[in-house]
Structures are given as C-alpha cells and as structure tokens.
Amino acid sequence: MPVRKNASRLASALIAVGLAAATFLTPTSASADAGFQNWVRSFRSTAIQAGVSGKTFDRAFRGVSAIDPEVLEKARFQPEFTAPVWDYFDNRVHDHSITVGRQMARQWKPWLDRIEAKYGVDRYILLAIWSMESNYGEILKNDKVMRSVVRSLATLGYADKRRAKFARTQLIAALKILQSGDIDESHLTGSWAGAMGHTQFIPTSYQAYAVDMDGNGKRDIWNSVPDALATAANLLRKNGWQSGRTWGYEVNLPAGKLPAGSMSLSKWQQLGVTRANGKPFKRGGDNATLKAPDGRNGPAFLATKNFFVLKNYNNADKYALAVGLLADEIAGYGGLVRDWDRPFTKLTFEQKQELQQRLSAHGYYDGKFDGKIGEASKKAIRAFQAQAGMSQDGHPSLEVLSTLRRR
User: If you classify domain 30-77+142-238 with CATH, what class do you get?
Assistant: First the structure.
C-alpha cells in the first residue's frame, strides 16, 4: 500500500481496516481453532440435512483442523481503490494473452470444433474466458494460489460474517461435488473464494453447468480442458448466447449528447454512431446499448445481447468488454481503433517483464517477472520514480523503463 502523506486520510484508513477486521474472528488463537472445530461438527448436521452423506463429510474434512489464515487475509484486504480503466485492460488484453490464445486455438482445435458445434458459442470467446480466469490454466499450477476448496469455504463460512451465507451454500455444493465422484478431496482445489478449475466455476455454478465433454464419466474442469471449456460454453448457451453473433462493436460517437438505453443498431446509426473500423453493422435490427467506460476520450462500444450474456459469468462491464476484445484479437479481427486514454506511453508485455526485472535488479521489486502490473509492481515503480526525481504516479511507462535502462 502506498505511504499516505495526509494524516487524516491515514486515520480514516486505519479505522476502515479496524471495522473490516471486526467482521472476522481471530484466526491464530487456540480458542479460535477449538471454535472452528466445534463449528465443523455443527455444520456436519447441516450438510447431512442438505443431502451430503456423513461419510462424504468426514472424508472431506479429514485433516482440516483449523481455518486458513491466508484466506481471511485475502478476504479482508481487497483493493481499496478502483483502478483506471486502462489498467484493467492492459493487464488482461495484451500481446502475450493474444499469442497464447492463438496457440491454444490450434492445440485444442478438434475439441473446440466439437464444443462450438454442440453449444453454438464462439471458440474465441471461450479462449478469452480461459485466459481471463486462469491464464490458460497456468494458475492451477501455482500452489500459492490454489488451495483446498473445502478448507477455504469452511474458513469463510465460520469466520467471515460478510461472506458466511455465500460460503456455506458453496461448501454444501462442494461436498456434493465430492459425493458425485467427479473429483476427489485431494484435487478439489480452487481460489481463496472457492472458484475452481480452468474456467473458475464456483461450486453452485459447477452443479448447474458442468459437463463431461471428453466422455470419461467425470465432469473434471480441473484436469480436462475440453470439460472446462464445454462447461463455460454450456453456461453461456443456457443464459441466452446467440450463436453466430458478435458481442458488440467499437464505434465512433458524434458530437452532442446521446440517449441512454437500448435501441436498434439502425437507430444508433441514424444518430450518427458508426463503426470505428468503417465497416457497416452486420445486423441493423439488433438492439444495442452504448458503453463508454473511459469517457469520450477513450474507445466507445455498442454492446449487443451476447455482451450481457457474458455478464452472467462476471457481472461487470469491464469483464465482458475484456473478454470480447481479447476474443476479437485472438480471432485476428484486430484491436482497438481508438486506444484507452492512457496518461503515458504503453509498454508491451515483454517490456513490462523487463521493467520488473530491472526494478528487481535495483532492489525495488521482489515479485515475479510476469508482466502483470499489480500493487507490488506499482509500489516499486513509485519508489524508483521518487529516487529518480520523476512524478510518482506508479505507471508502467516507457519513460520509466527508459530511465531504468540508463542506470
């Protein structure tokens, strides 16, 4: 977290942290462990009433004697700011995610052919979701990220008042997944909040949409890429995905105020809204909604029905836009005509890795050279900028990299 110069802001931040911490039980004391064990014994009856066998419950909780304190840390200290729109997209839609997506399109083509034929969902959308959710499965190899779903959800169900109801519902669903035999307890892993597999499904969504695409008798989104991608396709189809249609269009806006709400593409065109690449809209009768997440100085979009279907995966406009834009890039349709209103010169993915490496070499950064500019990277950039007499904005800019190269 950046050092705050304003004392009153620091006091407010400390109060906020204190209030947030009040929603958790103390995780490190022996009494907390005893309390958790008592809660587990009590929850066993709840699970059995919900249809989980005692045998399944006992198998799932074998060795789970205490909460996972790292889960509570991640739940407690979520980002306290809203990142600029360009920051969100730069970390998700970049040359590396596009290149790997195209490689995966070739590698998994036979299965993507089958999935697309069965569910009618565009393969590039599925590849973009895979990238967004697990970096094409790479995070599943990271033991520091992946952890026991049962322990994580039990921790939240016991110790996090804000998420307790959600976590307990998901825990019941996770136990039923074990009971079904699709996965065993040693491989039922996920994120700190219980999102699972290549396409990061929470347990209740898994129950609703998981499919056995590869035909081995198990719906295994952890180890089977076909199962994971087909499960994502099934979710989209069941929520109204329109086969053969786009998620939306980048557009140019005319001067003056435009109406809010949805109307046909033809009507938008009558108001002076045109495609940014100069091509005509494919289906003028389709309804669309204007989205301009970066204001008039950034790219604007007309979002069609499939955009809103994507929000069933993650109910955020930025997420749906990132999936759509990344899918278009993987498919070879090209990137944005008008870039985000970024206050610096953008780096490539490889240049971001170089930036992290050089910051590390100068003692400012000790994280991974993964090209993702998170809070640790931004803190390191600000520290270097302060030493170099630059504006301390934390931006991963060409200016910062060029200065580092001269050191």
Answer: mainly alpha
Token pair in block for residue 13:
């931040």
pLDDT tens for each residue of 316-341: 999 999 999 999 999 999 999 999 99
Q: What share of the chain is helix, strand, coil (3-state, %, to 5)?
A: 50, 5, 40
Residue 35 CB neighbours (<10 A) = 16
Angle between helices 30-49 and 164-180 (to 10 degrees): 60
Residue 278, C-beta contacts closer than 8 angstroms, at least 6 positions apart: none
Helix (H, G, I), strand (E, B) or coil at 37: helix
In this prediction, residue 33 has a pLDDT band, given cuts at 50, 70 and 90, of confident
d(CA 199, CA 314): 12
pLDDT at 213 over 70: yes
DSSP annotation string for 161-206? TTTHHHHHHHHHHHHHHHHHTSS-GGG-EE-TT--BTTTTB-HHHH
Q: Is 214 exposed, middle or buried (0-12, 13-18, 19+ CB in 10 A)?
A: middle
Domain extents for the chain?
Answer: 30-77+142-238, 349-405
C-alpha torsion angle, residues 43, 49, 52, 58 (rounded to 10): 40
User: pTM of the predicted model, to two decimals?
Assistant: 0.89
Q: For the beta carbon of residue 376, count every other beta carbon within 10 angstroms.
A: 16
Token pair 């695409």 is found at 213
Task: End-to-end CA distance of the chain: give it in Å, rounded.
Answer: 26
Helix (H, G, I), strand (E, B) or coil at 288: strand
Is residue 128 within 8 Å of 324, Cβ to Cβ?
yes
Separation of alpha carbons 356 and 372, rounded Å: 9
Site of tokens 């699709």: 182
Backbone angle region of 94, left / alpha / beta, with phi > 0 → left and psi within -120 to 50 → alpha: beta
Distance CA 321, CA 290 (A): 12
